[in-house]
Design a protein that fits this description.
Largest sheet: 6 strands, antiparallel
Order of helices and strands: EHEEHHHEHEHE
Distance between the termini: 16 Å
Number of strands: 6
Structural class: alpha+beta
Number of helices: 6
Strand content: 25-35%
CATH topology: Alpha-Beta Plaits
Helix content: 25-40%
CATH architecture: 2-Layer Sandwich
Number of domains: 1
């Protein structure tokens, strides 16, 4: 199985309505993506949006990630986000990894995006990684 985790924190509340609008279409594609075994979309108390997904293989995840809906959303990231990091790895089980493993991999091995307005914490490669969320949606 191929695991992917992403974390994106919006830098301003006023980006939230248009982000949610665009994200609605991305999630719709995500739910139906070939090779998606299971996925979670989460929002934490710091206005950070997380995804955690299990894919049959890496090519399935890349096909979704490089699709037009997701690419359109990703183009907004440098301006809208103050923190954005992702990481993917291979795992031998159909279960989500423990949260502490997800956080550790994301913090130490994650790909930190180039942003126009990064937070000071992001510049130091620090972010909150509590397993406390306002909302969690499971797919499929």
């Amino acid at each position: 199985m191929y695991v992917s985790v992403t974390r994106l924190k919006l830098r301003r509340w006023y980006f939230l309505p248009i982000f949610l609008f665009i994200n609605f279409f991305v999630i719709r594609k995500f739910r139906r993506a070939p090779g998606l075994i299971q996925g979670k979309v989460m929002v934490d108390y710091h206005l950070a949006f997380w995804t955690l997904s299990l894919w049959a293989q890496e090519t399935d995840m890349r096909q979704f990630r490089n699709g037009p809906r997701h690419l359109k959303a990703m183009r907004k990231t440098p301006e809208w986000a103050c923190e954005a990091v992702s990481y993917s790895w291979t795992r031998n089980t159909l279960d989500f990894p423990p949260w502490n493993e997800v956080c550790e991999k994301l913090k130490t091995l994650g790909k930190y995006s180039t942003l126009n307005h990064p937070s000071e914490a992001f510049k130091r490669r620090e972010f909150t990684c509590e397993e406390k969320f306002l909302n969690v949606m499971f797919y499929p």
